[in-house]
Amino acid sequence: MLTKAVDELRATTDLTMDEVLGLRTLPENRRTPLVCYSLGVIEGAATALRATPREMLEDFDLLTAPKRT
Across the chain, how many H-helices and E-strands are there? Predict the structure, then answer.
């Protein structure tokens, strides 16, 4: 579920996860229900693990996108 949320944010926003996490709010044209849900999944998982979203994504190697071949 976490991987799916990260993939959705990368595909929909065209931003890196660092950029998404660094923004206080996404631009209005980027805030779809699926994007908001994906952000909630990341925030909820991080809260459950008692970590920041950035720390959690680093631990699961999801902060940076895999290199394209």
Answer: 4, 0
Q: How many domains does the chain divide into?
A: 1
- Other beta carbons within 10 angstroms of residue 57's beta carbon come to 22
Q: pLDDT tens for residues 16-56?
A: 888 888 776 777 888 889 989 999 999 999 999 999 999 99
The answer to whether residue 34 is domain-embedded is: yes
Give pLDDT, residue 68: 61
Other Cβ atoms less than 10 A from the Cβ of 17: the count is 20
51, part of any domain: yes
67 domain residue, yes or no: no
